[in-house]
Description:
Elements: H1 13-17, H2 22-35, E1 41-42, H3 54-65, H4 78-92, E2 101-104, H5 106-118, E3 124-129, H6 133-141, E4 145-150, H7 161-167, E5 172-178, H8 190-202, E6 206-210, E7 233-237, E8 250-253, H9 259-270, H10 275-281, H11 287-310, E9 327-331, H12 339-350, E10 352-353, E11 355-356, E12 368-372, H13 377-391
Parallel strand pairs: 1-10, 3-4, 3-5, 5-6, 6-7
Antiparallel strand pairs: 2-8, 7-8, 9-12, 11-12
Helix pairs in contact: 3-10, 5-9, 7-8, 11-13
The structure holds pyridoxal-5'-phosphate.
Amino acid sequence: MPEPPVSSPPLSAFARVVEPFRVMDILARAQAAERAGRDIIHLEVGEPDFRTPPAIVDAGRRALERGATRYTAAHGTRELREALARDYRSRHAADIDPERIVITNGASAAILLALAAGVDPGDEILLPDPGYACNRQFVAARGARPTNLPVAAEDAFQPTARAVAEAWGEQTRALLLASPANPTGTRLERARLAEIAEVVRARNGLLIVDEIYGQLTFGAPERSAAALHPEVVVINSFSKYFAMTGWRLGWMVVPEAWIESVRRLAQNLFVAPSTLAQSAALAAFEPETEALLQARVSELERRRDVLLEGLPALGLEVQARPDGAFYIYADCRAHGGDSEALCADILDRVGVALTPGTDFSPAHGRDYLRIAYTQPEPRLREALERLHGVLGRG
Length: 394
Ligand SMILES: Cc1ncc(COP(=O)(O)O)c(C=O)c1O
Protein backbone atom coordinates (compact mmCIF):
# COMPACT_ATOMS: atom_id res chain seq x y z
CA MET A 1 0.00 0.00 0.00
CA PRO A 2 1.39 3.45 -0.81
CA GLU A 3 2.37 5.59 2.20
CA PRO A 4 -0.14 8.38 2.87
CA PRO A 5 1.37 11.84 2.32
CA VAL A 6 2.81 13.28 5.52
CA SER A 7 1.25 16.70 5.48
CA SER A 8 -1.19 18.63 7.63
CA PRO A 9 -4.67 19.43 6.40
CA PRO A 10 -4.55 22.77 4.59
CA LEU A 11 -5.32 25.87 6.62
CA SER A 12 -8.29 28.05 5.74
CA ALA A 13 -7.73 31.21 3.75
CA PHE A 14 -8.52 33.22 6.91
CA ALA A 15 -6.07 31.27 9.09
CA ARG A 16 -3.36 31.82 6.48
CA VAL A 17 -3.66 35.58 6.53
CA VAL A 18 -4.71 36.31 10.14
CA GLU A 19 -2.30 38.85 11.59
CA PRO A 20 -0.57 38.34 14.93
CA PHE A 21 -1.67 40.47 17.84
CA ARG A 22 1.82 41.98 18.04
CA VAL A 23 1.50 42.97 21.65
CA MET A 24 1.47 39.27 22.50
CA ASP A 25 4.75 38.83 20.63
CA ILE A 26 6.26 41.70 22.62
CA LEU A 27 4.94 40.15 25.84
CA ALA A 28 6.56 36.81 24.94
CA ARG A 29 9.91 38.52 24.28
CA ALA A 30 9.63 40.51 27.51
CA GLN A 31 8.88 37.35 29.47
CA ALA A 32 11.83 35.55 27.88
CA ALA A 33 14.07 38.43 28.98
CA GLU A 34 12.63 38.14 32.50
CA ARG A 35 13.38 34.44 32.60
CA ALA A 36 16.96 35.36 31.71
CA GLY A 37 17.03 37.50 34.88
CA ARG A 38 16.26 40.99 33.50
CA ASP A 39 13.94 43.45 35.19
CA ILE A 40 11.28 44.41 32.64
CA ILE A 41 8.74 47.22 33.09
CA HIS A 42 5.57 46.00 31.40
CA LEU A 43 3.71 48.80 29.68
CA GLU A 44 2.56 46.72 26.74
CA VAL A 45 -0.47 44.60 27.60
CA GLY A 46 -3.90 46.18 27.92
CA GLU A 47 -4.64 44.67 31.27
CA PRO A 48 -5.04 46.44 34.62
CA ASP A 49 -2.38 45.58 37.21
CA PHE A 50 -5.07 45.64 39.90
CA ARG A 51 -6.45 42.45 41.37
CA THR A 52 -10.11 41.48 41.14
CA PRO A 53 -11.87 43.23 44.08
CA PRO A 54 -12.07 40.97 47.18
CA ALA A 55 -15.89 40.97 47.32
CA ILE A 56 -16.02 39.55 43.77
CA VAL A 57 -13.41 36.89 44.57
CA ASP A 58 -15.33 35.92 47.75
CA ALA A 59 -18.60 35.65 45.82
CA GLY A 60 -16.84 33.39 43.30
CA ARG A 61 -15.42 31.21 46.08
CA ARG A 62 -18.86 30.85 47.70
CA ALA A 63 -20.40 29.98 44.33
CA LEU A 64 -17.88 27.19 43.82
CA GLU A 65 -18.52 25.86 47.33
CA ARG A 66 -22.25 25.65 46.75
CA GLY A 67 -21.65 23.84 43.45
CA ALA A 68 -22.52 26.57 40.94
CA THR A 69 -20.64 24.73 38.20
CA ARG A 70 -23.31 23.83 35.66
CA TYR A 71 -24.43 25.63 32.50
CA THR A 72 -26.64 28.71 32.81
CA ALA A 73 -28.95 30.03 30.09
CA ALA A 74 -26.98 30.93 26.95
CA HIS A 75 -27.75 34.63 27.43
CA GLY A 76 -26.75 34.55 31.12
CA THR A 77 -28.48 34.45 34.49
CA ARG A 78 -31.53 36.59 35.12
CA GLU A 79 -29.90 37.84 38.35
CA LEU A 80 -26.86 39.28 36.58
CA ARG A 81 -28.89 40.74 33.71
CA GLU A 82 -31.16 42.45 36.25
CA ALA A 83 -28.14 43.76 38.17
CA LEU A 84 -26.79 45.25 34.94
CA ALA A 85 -30.18 46.77 34.06
CA ARG A 86 -30.26 48.42 37.51
CA ASP A 87 -26.77 49.75 36.89
CA TYR A 88 -27.83 51.24 33.53
CA ARG A 89 -30.72 52.95 35.30
CA SER A 90 -28.69 54.42 38.16
CA ARG A 91 -25.48 55.22 36.28
CA HIS A 92 -26.75 56.18 32.85
CA ALA A 93 -30.44 57.03 33.37
CA ALA A 94 -31.14 54.38 30.72
CA ASP A 95 -34.14 52.14 31.01
CA ILE A 96 -32.89 48.83 29.60
CA ASP A 97 -35.10 45.76 29.70
CA PRO A 98 -32.95 42.92 31.16
CA GLU A 99 -34.22 40.78 28.26
CA ARG A 100 -32.13 42.98 25.94
CA ILE A 101 -28.94 42.13 27.87
CA VAL A 102 -26.89 39.13 26.74
CA ILE A 103 -24.05 37.93 28.98
CA THR A 104 -21.00 36.73 27.03
CA ASN A 105 -17.49 35.32 27.41
CA GLY A 106 -15.88 38.74 27.49
CA ALA A 107 -16.36 41.62 25.08
CA SER A 108 -14.60 39.45 22.48
CA ALA A 109 -17.51 36.99 22.33
CA ALA A 110 -19.97 39.89 22.39
CA ILE A 111 -18.34 41.45 19.31
CA LEU A 112 -18.37 38.08 17.52
CA LEU A 113 -22.05 37.61 18.38
CA ALA A 114 -22.94 41.14 17.28
CA LEU A 115 -21.24 40.54 13.94
CA ALA A 116 -22.82 37.09 13.56
CA ALA A 117 -26.21 38.67 14.19
CA GLY A 118 -25.93 41.82 12.11
CA VAL A 119 -23.40 41.28 9.32
CA ASP A 120 -23.21 39.03 6.25
CA PRO A 121 -20.13 37.79 4.37
CA GLY A 122 -19.02 40.40 1.87
CA ASP A 123 -20.38 43.35 3.86
CA GLU A 124 -18.05 46.26 4.58
CA ILE A 125 -17.58 47.23 8.22
CA LEU A 126 -16.11 50.64 9.04
CA LEU A 127 -13.41 50.52 11.71
CA PRO A 128 -11.70 53.68 12.95
CA ASP A 129 -7.96 53.69 12.24
CA PRO A 130 -6.34 53.57 14.78
CA GLY A 131 -8.51 51.11 16.64
CA TYR A 132 -8.56 47.85 18.56
CA ALA A 133 -6.44 45.36 16.61
CA CYS A 134 -8.67 42.30 16.96
CA ASN A 135 -11.70 44.01 15.40
CA ARG A 136 -10.24 43.62 11.92
CA GLN A 137 -9.83 39.90 12.54
CA PHE A 138 -13.33 39.51 14.01
CA VAL A 139 -14.76 41.11 10.89
CA ALA A 140 -12.61 38.96 8.60
CA ALA A 141 -13.60 35.81 10.52
CA ARG A 142 -17.21 36.63 9.63
CA GLY A 143 -16.21 36.80 5.95
CA ALA A 144 -16.90 40.54 5.96
CA ARG A 145 -14.49 43.28 4.90
CA PRO A 146 -12.82 45.54 7.47
CA THR A 147 -12.68 49.04 6.00
CA ASN A 148 -10.43 51.66 7.57
CA LEU A 149 -12.11 54.85 8.64
CA PRO A 150 -9.27 57.36 9.09
CA VAL A 151 -9.62 59.51 12.21
CA ALA A 152 -7.59 62.64 12.91
CA ALA A 153 -5.67 63.64 16.02
CA GLU A 154 -7.47 67.01 16.02
CA ASP A 155 -10.78 65.10 16.29
CA ALA A 156 -9.44 63.19 19.33
CA PHE A 157 -8.78 60.20 17.04
CA GLN A 158 -12.54 59.60 16.94
CA PRO A 159 -14.81 59.58 13.87
CA THR A 160 -16.93 62.54 12.84
CA ALA A 161 -20.44 62.23 11.41
CA ARG A 162 -19.19 63.77 8.18
CA ALA A 163 -16.37 61.24 7.79
CA VAL A 164 -18.80 58.36 8.45
CA ALA A 165 -21.25 59.71 5.87
CA GLU A 166 -18.46 60.10 3.30
CA ALA A 167 -17.02 56.64 3.95
CA TRP A 168 -20.39 54.88 3.89
CA GLY A 169 -20.66 53.01 0.58
CA GLU A 170 -23.02 50.64 -1.20
CA GLN A 171 -21.66 47.60 0.62
CA THR A 172 -21.28 49.20 4.06
CA ARG A 173 -23.33 47.51 6.74
CA ALA A 174 -21.94 48.67 10.07
CA LEU A 175 -19.65 50.96 12.05
CA LEU A 176 -17.83 49.58 15.10
CA LEU A 177 -16.23 52.16 17.37
CA ALA A 178 -15.07 52.40 20.99
CA SER A 179 -15.24 55.19 23.55
CA PRO A 180 -12.89 55.61 25.31
CA ALA A 181 -10.84 54.01 22.59
CA ASN A 182 -7.92 51.64 22.48
CA PRO A 183 -5.08 52.62 21.70
CA THR A 184 -5.69 56.35 22.17
CA GLY A 185 -7.61 56.55 25.47
CA THR A 186 -9.73 59.30 23.91
CA ARG A 187 -13.49 59.70 24.21
CA LEU A 188 -16.16 60.49 21.66
CA GLU A 189 -18.29 63.46 22.75
CA ARG A 190 -21.87 62.50 23.24
CA ALA A 191 -23.21 65.09 20.78
CA ARG A 192 -20.88 63.77 18.09
CA LEU A 193 -21.89 60.19 18.83
CA ALA A 194 -25.55 61.19 18.49
CA GLU A 195 -24.81 62.72 15.07
CA ILE A 196 -22.99 59.58 13.99
CA ALA A 197 -25.89 57.42 15.19
CA GLU A 198 -28.20 59.48 12.99
CA VAL A 199 -25.97 59.05 9.94
CA VAL A 200 -25.90 55.28 10.48
CA ARG A 201 -29.62 55.08 11.16
CA ALA A 202 -30.46 57.07 8.02
CA ARG A 203 -28.63 54.37 6.04
CA ASN A 204 -30.36 51.55 7.89
CA GLY A 205 -26.92 50.52 9.14
CA LEU A 206 -25.70 48.95 12.34
CA LEU A 207 -23.86 50.98 14.99
CA ILE A 208 -21.85 48.94 17.48
CA VAL A 209 -20.37 50.93 20.37
CA ASP A 210 -17.72 49.21 22.47
CA GLU A 211 -17.86 50.66 26.01
CA ILE A 212 -15.34 48.30 27.59
CA TYR A 213 -13.49 51.38 28.98
CA GLY A 214 -16.71 53.32 29.61
CA GLN A 215 -16.26 53.44 33.37
CA LEU A 216 -12.55 54.13 33.19
CA THR A 217 -12.96 57.81 32.44
CA PHE A 218 -11.45 60.95 33.90
CA GLY A 219 -13.60 64.04 34.35
CA ALA A 220 -17.30 63.85 33.53
CA PRO A 221 -18.64 60.29 33.59
CA GLU A 222 -19.35 58.65 30.24
CA ARG A 223 -23.04 58.08 29.53
CA SER A 224 -23.76 54.85 27.75
CA ALA A 225 -24.78 54.86 24.10
CA ALA A 226 -27.53 52.48 25.26
CA ALA A 227 -29.32 55.64 26.46
CA LEU A 228 -29.09 57.13 22.96
CA HIS A 229 -31.53 54.94 21.08
CA PRO A 230 -32.60 51.31 21.32
CA GLU A 231 -31.13 50.19 17.99
CA VAL A 232 -27.51 50.80 19.00
CA VAL A 233 -25.68 47.60 19.94
CA VAL A 234 -23.57 48.22 23.03
CA ILE A 235 -20.62 46.01 23.98
CA ASN A 236 -19.16 45.89 27.48
CA SER A 237 -17.07 43.69 29.76
CA PHE A 238 -16.06 42.96 33.31
CA SER A 239 -12.43 42.71 32.13
CA LYS A 240 -11.07 46.21 32.60
CA TYR A 241 -12.94 48.40 35.12
CA PHE A 242 -13.73 45.39 37.32
CA ALA A 243 -10.21 43.92 36.82
CA MET A 244 -11.58 40.54 35.76
CA THR A 245 -9.71 39.89 32.49
CA GLY A 246 -9.07 36.21 33.25
CA TRP A 247 -12.63 35.48 34.32
CA ARG A 248 -13.83 35.98 30.73
CA LEU A 249 -17.10 37.80 31.27
CA GLY A 250 -18.77 40.54 29.25
CA TRP A 251 -22.16 41.54 27.98
CA MET A 252 -24.02 43.38 25.27
CA VAL A 253 -27.25 45.29 24.89
CA VAL A 254 -29.14 44.38 21.72
CA PRO A 255 -32.20 45.81 19.95
CA GLU A 256 -35.43 44.17 21.01
CA ALA A 257 -35.96 42.64 17.58
CA TRP A 258 -32.62 40.82 17.89
CA ILE A 259 -33.24 39.09 21.24
CA GLU A 260 -34.39 35.68 20.01
CA SER A 261 -31.82 35.38 17.22
CA VAL A 262 -28.91 36.44 19.41
CA ARG A 263 -29.93 33.91 22.04
CA ARG A 264 -30.03 31.18 19.41
CA LEU A 265 -26.61 32.21 18.12
CA ALA A 266 -25.22 32.24 21.68
CA GLN A 267 -26.66 28.78 22.38
CA ASN A 268 -24.99 27.37 19.30
CA LEU A 269 -21.69 29.21 19.36
CA PHE A 270 -20.92 29.29 23.08
CA VAL A 271 -23.60 27.24 24.96
CA ALA A 272 -23.26 29.61 27.92
CA PRO A 273 -20.95 32.14 29.59
CA SER A 274 -18.94 31.03 32.65
CA THR A 275 -21.25 30.23 35.57
CA LEU A 276 -18.52 30.91 38.12
CA ALA A 277 -17.75 34.32 36.65
CA GLN A 278 -21.43 35.27 36.52
CA SER A 279 -21.94 34.39 40.19
CA ALA A 280 -18.83 36.33 41.21
CA ALA A 281 -19.79 39.38 39.13
CA LEU A 282 -22.96 39.89 41.17
CA ALA A 283 -20.71 41.39 43.85
CA ALA A 284 -19.40 43.95 41.34
CA PHE A 285 -22.24 46.35 42.11
CA GLU A 286 -21.87 46.45 45.89
CA PRO A 287 -21.05 49.93 47.28
CA GLU A 288 -17.70 48.83 48.79
CA THR A 289 -16.59 47.42 45.41
CA GLU A 290 -17.67 50.61 43.64
CA ALA A 291 -15.68 52.73 46.14
CA LEU A 292 -12.57 50.62 45.57
CA LEU A 293 -12.96 50.81 41.78
CA GLN A 294 -13.45 54.57 41.80
CA ALA A 295 -10.25 54.97 43.85
CA ARG A 296 -8.47 52.98 41.15
CA VAL A 297 -9.79 55.30 38.44
CA SER A 298 -8.27 58.25 40.36
CA GLU A 299 -5.00 56.35 40.60
CA LEU A 300 -5.04 55.78 36.82
CA GLU A 301 -5.63 59.48 36.25
CA ARG A 302 -2.57 60.33 38.38
CA ARG A 303 -0.48 57.83 36.42
CA ARG A 304 -1.62 59.36 33.14
CA ASP A 305 -0.53 62.77 34.38
CA VAL A 306 2.94 61.48 35.33
CA LEU A 307 3.43 60.19 31.78
CA LEU A 308 1.92 63.19 30.04
CA GLU A 309 4.41 65.34 31.93
CA GLY A 310 7.41 63.16 31.14
CA LEU A 311 6.86 62.16 27.50
CA PRO A 312 7.49 65.47 25.65
CA ALA A 313 11.11 65.57 26.88
CA LEU A 314 11.58 62.16 25.26
CA GLY A 315 10.44 63.33 21.84
CA LEU A 316 7.19 61.38 22.18
CA GLU A 317 4.36 63.69 21.22
CA VAL A 318 0.84 63.08 22.51
CA GLN A 319 -1.41 64.73 19.92
CA ALA A 320 -4.76 64.08 21.58
CA ARG A 321 -5.07 64.16 25.36
CA PRO A 322 -6.35 60.80 26.61
CA ASP A 323 -9.25 61.09 29.05
CA GLY A 324 -10.03 57.46 29.74
CA ALA A 325 -8.87 53.83 29.63
CA PHE A 326 -5.18 53.38 30.54
CA TYR A 327 -3.42 54.11 27.28
CA ILE A 328 -1.34 56.85 25.74
CA TYR A 329 -0.79 56.84 21.99
CA ALA A 330 2.38 58.75 21.22
CA ASP A 331 3.87 59.95 17.96
CA CYS A 332 7.40 58.52 17.77
CA ARG A 333 8.43 59.91 14.38
CA ALA A 334 11.20 61.92 16.04
CA HIS A 335 12.94 58.55 16.52
CA GLY A 336 12.75 57.25 12.95
CA GLY A 337 9.81 55.89 11.05
CA ASP A 338 9.57 52.36 12.40
CA SER A 339 7.75 51.85 15.69
CA GLU A 340 8.28 48.08 15.60
CA ALA A 341 12.06 48.46 15.43
CA LEU A 342 11.92 51.21 18.07
CA CYS A 343 9.89 49.12 20.52
CA ALA A 344 12.21 46.14 19.99
CA ASP A 345 15.25 48.37 20.56
CA ILE A 346 13.78 49.91 23.74
CA LEU A 347 12.95 46.48 25.13
CA ASP A 348 16.43 45.14 24.39
CA ARG A 349 18.33 48.15 25.67
CA VAL A 350 16.44 49.31 28.74
CA GLY A 351 13.83 46.65 29.46
CA VAL A 352 10.69 48.74 28.93
CA ALA A 353 7.98 46.88 26.99
CA LEU A 354 5.81 49.08 24.74
CA THR A 355 3.46 48.22 21.86
CA PRO A 356 4.12 49.43 18.30
CA GLY A 357 1.25 51.32 16.67
CA THR A 358 1.21 48.76 13.84
CA ASP A 359 -1.12 46.66 16.00
CA PHE A 360 -3.74 49.39 15.82
CA SER A 361 -3.25 51.34 12.64
CA PRO A 362 -2.72 49.84 9.19
CA ALA A 363 -2.16 53.34 7.79
CA HIS A 364 0.11 55.11 10.30
CA GLY A 365 1.11 52.48 12.85
CA ARG A 366 4.81 52.84 12.17
CA ASP A 367 4.66 56.43 13.41
CA TYR A 368 3.12 55.67 16.82
CA LEU A 369 3.52 53.54 19.90
CA ARG A 370 1.11 52.72 22.72
CA ILE A 371 1.98 52.99 26.38
CA ALA A 372 -0.32 51.16 28.81
CA TYR A 373 0.03 52.71 32.28
CA THR A 374 -0.69 49.48 34.05
CA GLN A 375 2.14 49.85 36.57
CA PRO A 376 2.30 51.81 39.84
CA GLU A 377 3.58 55.39 39.75
CA PRO A 378 7.15 54.65 40.95
CA ARG A 379 7.57 52.09 38.16
CA LEU A 380 6.27 54.60 35.62
CA ARG A 381 8.80 57.16 36.82
CA GLU A 382 11.51 54.55 36.49
CA ALA A 383 10.30 53.71 32.99
CA LEU A 384 10.58 57.40 32.06
CA GLU A 385 14.12 57.48 33.38
CA ARG A 386 15.09 54.37 31.47
CA LEU A 387 13.51 55.73 28.29
CA HIS A 388 15.53 58.88 28.78
CA GLY A 389 18.62 56.72 28.39
CA VAL A 390 17.53 55.70 24.88
CA LEU A 391 15.40 58.59 23.66
CA GLY A 392 16.40 61.58 25.75
CA ARG A 393 17.93 64.63 24.16
CA GLY A 394 20.83 66.63 25.44
C1 LIG B 1 -11.55 47.97 22.78
C2 LIG B 1 -11.55 46.55 23.27
N1 LIG B 1 -12.61 45.76 23.01
C3 LIG B 1 -12.64 44.48 23.42
C4 LIG B 1 -11.56 43.90 24.11
C5 LIG B 1 -11.66 42.46 24.53
O1 LIG B 1 -11.96 42.37 25.90
P1 LIG B 1 -12.45 41.09 26.69
O2 LIG B 1 -11.34 40.74 27.65
O3 LIG B 1 -13.67 41.52 27.46
O4 LIG B 1 -12.75 40.02 25.72
C6 LIG B 1 -10.45 44.69 24.40
C7 LIG B 1 -9.28 44.12 25.11
O5 LIG B 1 -8.24 44.70 25.21
C8 LIG B 1 -10.45 46.06 23.97
O6 LIG B 1 -9.40 46.86 24.21
